[in-house]
Give the backbone structure.
Amino acid sequence: MACDGRLVLTVNPGGTSTKLGLFRETELIFQKSIRHLPEELEQFDSTLGQLDYRRDMILAALEEEGYGLEELTAVVGRGGAFKPLESGTYEVNSSLVEDIREGSTLQADHPSNLGALLAWEIALEAGCRPYIVDPVCVDEMIPEARLSGLPQLERISLSHALNIRMVAYKAAEKLGRKLQDLNMVVLHLGSGISVNAIRKGRMIDTSQANDGGPFSPQRVGALPTTGLAKMCLSGRYTWPEMKVMLLKRGGLFAYTGTDHVGEALERAREGDEICDLALRAMAYQIIKEAGAMAAALAGDIDAVVITGGIAINEWMTERISRNLKHLAEIIVFPGEEELEALMRGVFRVLDSVEDVKIYR
């Protein structure tokens, strides 16, 4: 299907789906979400074992839409929880592929780790270059942000860096300035919540959605430390049970039985006092964490940016904005467009706006 313009395939592997999008320059040609049923994934012993299965489905979808691999300029996958890396766009190389396969530098086992491998294999067959953009392991934290209070437990940086960096670029465009000249507090509000301080384009601190910050629809956020230690040592729970409680069935779900903010809001409007309190508490904790990140930037802030799936709900964004508007201009980008973020990251490199990063 000949046509002028560079063609970029974007791939975002998740827990229950693989999302892909094909862009001609910055125009979306098609987008597809390939669902993976639990019984289909249960046949694999590990996340890595799903690679061929997901790759073949991507190639079939591309062929179904009438595009050949030889037309691709680049393939870009979502970056996973690798060793700590600077933000930016990385060309996938053999060192990264080997580290993922060995598991030697993985901080967590997550389907996003497959993004680099999918990009590598498809690009190799297509004869083009593979990339990842702003993986969840982006780590630009300043030294004083790393100390937790216990030397054995250093604070680490895992966040929704892909979407956070994209909306930071969009906010800079809206303000008519360069991201490297701006300070921002960026709130990514999804099933997990990341609140980040960005200084001159660098993500100097994050609330780390798995280990702290506000509770979210599924995750517990920061907890009373001694109480948590007692629970863990009580003998009542195994580690797998605790992990599910902390990361999948905590937060809003633990209080209300739903992890859907829209549903909880509807129930609150109908008089459900527990939903009302839980939503107000979640908003309160988000606001408080944003204030802490503002303090980390010494109050020198050009914008507070709100994004993620929860930002679709005006009740939440209005409540947060009302309490943070004294800090800086509030900019809202509802939803999370990770395929667009991947595309933008690649074109920043192809158009020489940024230098490509080399994984070592």
About this structure: The mean pLDDT is 94.
